[in-house]
Amino acid sequence: MDPVMEAYKLLKDEDPEVRRQAALDLGSLGQSAVGPLLEALGDSDWRVRKTAVESMIGVRGPEAVEGLYRLLFSEDNAGARNSAAEALVRMGAEAAHALNPKISEPDPDVRKFVVDIIGEIGDKSSAPALIKALNDDDPNVQASAVESLGRMKAIEALDAIVELLRTGDQWLAFNAAAALGCLGDEKAVLPLIDAVEDRYLREPVLEALGTLADERAWPVMQEALSDRVGVNREKAVKGLWKILGKSVDRAALSGALRRGADVRAVEFMVGCLTSEDVELKNAAAGLLGAMREKGACEPLAKQLLYMDSADTAFQALIEIAKDGVEPLTFLLGDEEPVVRASVARIMGETGDHRVANLLIPLLNDEDGHTRSAAARALGRLGDKRAVEPLLELLRDEFEDVQEAAVLALGSLAGQDVVWRLKDLAYDYEPALRRNVAFLLGMLDGQEAYDTLMALMKDEDPDVRKAAVEAVSRCEPDKALKGVLTVVTDEDNEVRLAAVNALAELGMVEAADPLILLMGDVNPWVRAAAARGIARTGSPKAEASLCGLMRDSYGPVKIAVIEALGEVGTNGALTEVQSHLSDPDPEMRKAALDSLVNFTDADLSGSVAPLLKDPEWVVRKAAVEALGALRPSGWQAALKEVAASDEVDIVRDAAREFLDR
């Protein structure tokens, strides 16, 4: 039996699962399956209809589109009509083009279906057909056309939609106002402002003006803060915040709002802070901050407790604090730790030294985040009275508090504190000794350096590692001398820290110890040493790196290839090129990445063959190498890749270089 007829017969089965399977099978039978699938779209079982939609989308074609269009007339089968509409929408531009002429269909219900479907597809080439539908005899069709044109941002429809805004038909004008906001064109601003006094249109007009966020609408939006209708006041709050966000003169608009908003408007915005509408409460918080409304501090502080409003509330409180921190001081005693911590941060950012005496007690707060925030704030304020309590925080139970104390003391402490740190360097707690090392690295002087050198011999590897990192910040000769004492340390992490420090110094004198470390037992130390020696500028770098190419550990070889690129000699180039044919794609990629350093060499013959590499990551690296080096013929090679490579990301990389 013919497969289509067999499936069609099964569509009559009593079992919906049998019918669903038949609809699925029809999807692979081409255009001959259109008729049965159209019938399946009207099945009583939603699963069958859903499968038929999927199959019909696979079949497609003019016959399918026409059949689906005819199902829109199925007044007695809503399932068939809705399934047909879904299939047409998902067919996209193909369906839209076929439906454009159908906008003249005599049945107004079908015309509305057609307009809705075209609008849902959103293909901009259908805009002329939808503009024609703006003059339809049926207001529902007109309204749907207006909405669809707005959603697809069809700017060419702006003038026609403005005319509908001015029409006597309030239903159409309502939809026109909303559509003008969606269009996003500044030409709609003045017509919308003219329409704002229409009581019926006020809500959509305010929303549209808020969406456009044009400063010309500011007076209208500010005046609407006192509107008798609550929803209009909400639109005004949202709109003003959007306008303020786009403005190049926020200070002027904020000042106008501060002068013009009455008590009722402020109270309304404060009330919006508890709204379930996240956009509304954030807009209200932002405006209250812009107004520097001191009376809003407490309700704003409560919003710090919620993830969806905390950032805006925090910024609002910062704005209020610019007129003085006094309204925020009582919040330092709030029962919520997040409020205390946030206010401490704000006070640190204000730079008002008078608040230091309020922040010092918070260093003993029960909440770690608050202690950390207070420490960082005191570091910014630079009040020496905080040194002693900050030293105590070096023992805090939380590492982030310890770190905050180290940073704060680094800003505050001087040589007068070094003697205290020298005593603490022999404390029984390794974590404290580690913090002392970090802090000493932020201070100058021989005594600080000598104490760090002692910590380089500490029994705890974390302390030694911290001491290495701290010593590396000393002046170069001292740093080199200190780091060299730990290049043979028993701990891998300490030696790795030493390698990184030597690499950061970039001194020729660091080359020999780095060469020594290129033979380390730990592969990560060897890899870091390879990267480091390239920065020293030593004439020994090329030979030592080429010797390390015999390393059996892949990441080490990749590090060597990268380092040879930084060395940039002819011998380094030869070695890098030899790995373009390496069996390991990671090596080929590393070689390509390294080649971009050799800008004076003609490498087109070396790179171009790898545009055909079996691995896409290698092909992409080849594209990037050609795009960076731009040897002869690079554009033609990349055009071919952009047109033919099977992987999107490779094609896109080629197009990006061609477009530059």
Number of strands: 0
Distance between the termini: 60 Å
How would you describe the shape? flat
SSE-based structural type: mainly alpha
Give me the Rg, rounded: 36 Å
Mean pLDDT: 91
Count of DSSP H/I helices: 43
Biggest β-sheet strands, sense, barrel: none
Query: Per DSSP, what share of the residues sits in E-state strands of 2 or more residues?
Result: under 5%
Please mark out the parts with pLDDT under 50 across 5 or more consecutive residues, or reply none: none
* Percent range of helical residues: 55-70%
Structural description of this entry:
With 660 residues, this protein is mainly α. Helices cover 67% and strands 0% of the residues. The longest helix has 17 residues, at 230-246. The protein is flat and about 95 Å long. The two termini are 60 Å apart.
Question: Which keywords apply here?
Answer:
single chain, mainly alpha, 660 residues
Summarize this entry quickly.
With 660 residues, the chain is mostly helical.
Strand-helix topology:
Blueprint: H1 3-10, H2 16-26, H3 34-40, H4 46-59, H5 62-71, H6 78-91, H7 93-99, H8 108-121, H9 127-133, H10 139-151, H11 158-165, H12 170-183, H13 189-195, H14 202-212, H15 218-223, H16 230-246, H17 250-260, H18 263-272, H19 278-290, H20 297-302, H21 310-321, H22 326-329, H23 337-350, H24 356-359, H25 368-381, H26 387-393, H27 399-412, H28 415-424, H29 430-440, H30 446-455, H31 461-471, H32 476-483, H33 492-505, H34 511-517, H35 523-534, H36 541-548, H37 554-567, H38 570-578, H39 585-595, H40 604-607, H41 616-629, H42 634-644, H43 648-659
